């Protein structure tokens, strides 16, 4: 979601609510490749990747590490990615035969669990909509006084919560669509009257509005034009209209069911594994392509950007639609990844509700048993995930919700900006003293986009692949380390943050220590991690002799 997609209601414009931007970072532009730069030498709070390559890794050999990007799709032909895509050497491309007999035909670069031979799912609804539709026939007309057994009482309470959440989200989306559409209408009037589709701030100052609405819109957009230009603002406005329109039409539409008669699986069977197609790109590969580039866009080709790791094979596992991912698909994506050699699973997705947590828990346990490391984005809702859910999680639970263990080889990642001050933590980032392990750069991260293009994006979705790239960098040079050791190295080598940082919790602005909102209390650091990895490796080798 871009800045327009994060508009909040703060005032009224005549009879309609109006909007202002919820800023996610400071307005200035950071240095190129800032996430890989060094705080001391470059003045930005990156993870010191370039320093590590220059001072620690020069001339050293490494082994390739397979990183699975479980996401919405990857443009495997991108100029900065195509030479590092994982290739299933046991499969003969395009022959329509399951040569390696893993159940997936022609899975050359990965697999797509949200498609069939005829169609790829693009949009989907939110999990809360699916759950409402599940419980509504039984509980829509029930009352608090209705006699329930214990299981029914919990389901009824969940149903009530789902409906309340749904109504709030739907109202917000409808108002967002109404307001962004209204702004566009009056901007179009203004630019048409001016006969100028890209007015400057001076042009807007000189313009004489013909009505009060035009005056209010000009007043509103002037601060934004100061920061960039009208054309960019207008493009973001169109993105905002598209975002809110998609929420209303698909994400929050109780009558929308894209799974029916599309993928061709038995959706009621969470243990079914063989379905989908081999199209890892799909109809919208922007998010997954951006994530993949952060991990390992080719560093030595003098084009585009530089990924964190320089010896990676990217496996594409398309699982996340425009909407909430489904637990069955997530579980299968995890299993497919590790069965085909992925050591690191990047999961830049999450949701507030879960349909079948057990099937995901079992898949996570399987991945951990195979020695994989799972890296998960903490989420972009400015919430404390000790109090509010962001699935999937490392916590295994029984049918009643009681915790029955944890996935130790799991890293939960929050997002930071480039300034070493109270604004370090991204305003959108989730946090949690026991639930978020580390923070990593996630604001204005420039990375790969479909069609061999590049773009800046914000999100914990961008912070997680920074950590996945770091894990791959460590593992490629020290392949004998275990997943738990790699995680431990990343956690213990963070750059600790001493000053308090700003967060917003329950509507209140707070200043807290990073150690209060994360387990490690710091931002990951590649240079420190590689030094510690060397010591850990030497220690392990000496003990084995």
Total number of β-strand segments? 17
Tell me the Rg in angstroms: 24 Å
Q: So how many helices?
A: 13
Q: Poorly predicted ranges (pLDDT <50, ≥5 residues)? A: 1-25
Main structural class:
alpha/beta
- Sum up the overall morphology in one term: globular
Output mean pLDDT: 93
Helix content: 25-40%
Q: What's the order of the H and E elements?
A: EEHHEEHHHHHHEHEHEEEEEEEHHEEEEH
- Spatial strand order of the main sheet: 4-5-3-6-7-10-11
Distance between the ends: 53 Å
| Fraction in beta strands | 5-15%
Largest sheet: 7 strands, parallel
Question: Can you give a write-up of this model?
Answer:
The chain is an alpha/beta fold and 545 residues long. Helix content is 37%, strand content 14%. It contains 13 helices and 17 strands. It has helices at 39-42, 49-57, 127-139, 150-194, 201-206, 212-227, 230-251, 286-296, 327-339, 357-369, 460-477, 483-492, 526-544, and strands spanning 8-13, 16-20, 65-71, 110-112, 312-318, 344-347, 373-377, 395-397, 403-406, 410-416, 438-441, 445-449, 453-457, 495-496, 501-505, 508-512, 522-523. The strands form 6 sheets. Strands 4-5-3-6-7-10-11 form a 7-stranded parallel β-sheet, with helices on both faces. The protein starts with 7 loop residues before the first strand and ends with a helix. Residues 1-25 have low confidence and may be disordered.
């Amino acid at each position: 979601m871009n800045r327009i997609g994060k508009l909040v209601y703060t005032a009224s414009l005549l009879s309609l609510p109006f909007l202002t931007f919820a800023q996610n970072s400071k307005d200035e532009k950071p240095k190129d490749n800032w996430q890989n730069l060094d705080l001391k030498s470059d003045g930005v709070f990156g993870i010191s990747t370039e320093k590590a390559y220059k001072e620690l890794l020069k001339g050293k050999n490494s082994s390739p590490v397979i990183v699975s990007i479980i996401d919405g799709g990857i443009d495997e032909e991108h100029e900065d990615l195509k030479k590092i895509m994982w290739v299933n050497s046991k499969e003969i491309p395009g022959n329509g035969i399951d040569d390696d007999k893993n159940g997936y035909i022609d899975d050359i670069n990965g697999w797509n669990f949200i498609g069939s031979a005829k169609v790829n799912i693009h949009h989907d609804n939110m999990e809360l909509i699916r759950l409402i539709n599940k419980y509504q026939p039984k509980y829509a007309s029930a009352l608090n006084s209705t006699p329930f057994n214990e299981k029914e009482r919990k389901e009824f309470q969940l149903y009530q919560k789902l409906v309340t959440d749904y109504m709030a989200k739907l109202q917000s989306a409808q108002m967002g669509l109404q307001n962004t559409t209204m702004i566009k209408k009056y901007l179009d009037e203004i630019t048409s009257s001016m006969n100028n589709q890209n007015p400057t701030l001076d042009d807007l100052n000189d313009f004489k509005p013909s009505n009060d609405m035009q005056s209010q819109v000009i007043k509103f957009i002037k601060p934004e034009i100061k920061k960039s230009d009208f054309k960019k603002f207008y493009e973001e406005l169109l993105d905002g209209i598209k975002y809110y329109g998609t929420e209303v039409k698909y994400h929050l539409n109780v009558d929308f069911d894209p799974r029916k008669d599309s993928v061709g699986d038995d959706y009621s069977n969470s243990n079914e594994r063989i379905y989908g197609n081999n199209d890892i790109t799909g109809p919208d590969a922007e998010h997954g392509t951006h994530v993949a580039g952060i991990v390992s866009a080719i560093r030595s080709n003098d084009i585009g950007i530089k990924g964190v790791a320089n010896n990676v094979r990217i496996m594409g596992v398309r699982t996340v639609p425009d909407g909430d991912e489904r637990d069955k698909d997530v579980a299968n994506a995890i299993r497919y990844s590790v069965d085909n050699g992925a050591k690191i699973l990047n999961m830049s997705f999450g949701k507030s509700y879960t349909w079948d947590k057990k099937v995901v828990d079992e898949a996570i346990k399987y991945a951990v048993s195979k020695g994989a490391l799972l890296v998960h984005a903490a989420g972009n809702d400015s919430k404390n995930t000790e109090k509010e859910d962001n699935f999937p999680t490392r916590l295994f639970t029984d049918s009643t919700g009681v915790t029955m263990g944890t996935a130790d080889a799991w890293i939960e990642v929050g997002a930071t900006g480039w300034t070493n001050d109270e604004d370090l933590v991204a305003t959108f980032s989730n946090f949690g003293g026991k639930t978020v392990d580390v923070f990593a750069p996630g604001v204005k991260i420039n990375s790969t986009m479909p069609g061999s293009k590049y773009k800046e994006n914000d999100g914990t979705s961008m912070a997680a692949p920074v950590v996945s790239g770091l894990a791959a960098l460590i593992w490629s040079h020290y392949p004998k380390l275990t997943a738990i050791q790699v995680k431990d190295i990343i956690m213990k080598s963070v750059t600790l943050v001493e000053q308090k940082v700003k967060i917003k919790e329950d509507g209140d602005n707070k200043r807290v220590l990073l150690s209060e909102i994360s387990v490690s209390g710091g931002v990951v650091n590649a240079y420190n991690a590689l030094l510690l990895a060397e010591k850990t490796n030497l220690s392990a080798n000496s003990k084995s002799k």
